[in-house]
Every structure is written in structure tokens, then in C-alpha cells.
């Protein structure tokens, strides 16, 4: 075995204090994975909302009055003058002008990528939750054994 690979130690060989530390670490990892999953779901919902808006975006919208955000809480009135192209946020403050079909394809790619990430995080989360259950079970057994030992000595 190479030195870079972590060695697996049976949890039953750990002390109560060590198990408690491992439990805290795994709980922290579960919490982080849940947060990641929630962020991915929020991102997916935003893309789905954008996709739905694009599906309804057509020539009937020319001249329609809209509020355009200048910041997250500051808007200005405007009128739609073009429905063939939109500006797509590609991340880190960059936007590209795309036609409607290209914008929909971009969103579909992002949705597929997010779904792959959601699936991966869900698998990791289930694995961590299973590990946590095993750790808690062993910890409870060891605590019960430690409480029984003084009674047996008496």
C-alpha cells in the first residue's frame, strides 16, 4: 500500500472519545453535503425558471414594459425592443449575446451538468449518512459497555 492512501481502521477499535470526534467530523461532512445539494437545487430552479421564460419569449413581447435590474434591489423601467437575442450570464459577471435557441441549448447543458452533480452529491450524502449511523451505533454500544463495567466490578 502506498503512503498516500489512507488506511482504514475498524470503528470498533476506536475509543469513545475517538468515535465522538469521528462522529462530529462526519456530521460536519453531512451538513456540508446537504448545503451543497441545496445550492445545486437552487441553481437548477433558476435555470428552469429562465428556460420557462425563454419558452414564453416571442414577438408578442416587443414593446412590453419591463423592470430591468441595475442591482439586486434597484430597477429601471424599460421596453423590450428585440426578441431574437438575449444576454446569457455565463458566470463571474460575463454575459454573451445568444439567439433564443442557443440560449435554450446553453440552459439545457447547464441543467444536465447540475443534475449530474446532484446525483453525485446524493450518493455521497447517502454514504456519509450510512457511515454516521454505524458510528452512532458503535458509540452507543461502547457507552453502554462502559456504564455496565463499573456495575459488574461492584
What keywords describe this structure?
two-stranded antiparallel sheet; 154 residues; 2 helices; alpha+beta
Number of helices: 2
Poorly predicted runs of 5 or more residues: none
Mean pLDDT over the residues: 91
- The residue fraction in helices comes out at 55-70%
> How much strand?
5-15%
Query: How would you characterize the largest beta sheet?
Result: 2 strands, antiparallel
Shape: elongated
**Using only CA atoms, what is the Rg?**
26 Å
Number of beta strands: 4
Strand order across the largest sheet = 1-2
Order of helices and strands: HEEEEH
Distance between the termini: 47 Å
- Global structural class: alpha+beta
Please tell me about this protein's structure.
With about 150 residues, the protein is an alpha+beta fold. The chain is about 60% helix and about 15% strand. It contains 2 helices and 4 strands, in the order H-E-E-E-E-H. It has helices spanning about 15-55, 100-154, and strands at about 65-70, 75-80, 85-90, 95-100. The strands form 2 sheets. Strands 1-2 form a two-stranded antiparallel sheet. A two-stranded antiparallel ribbon has the order 3-4. The protein is elongated. The two termini are about 45 Å apart. The mean pLDDT is about 90.
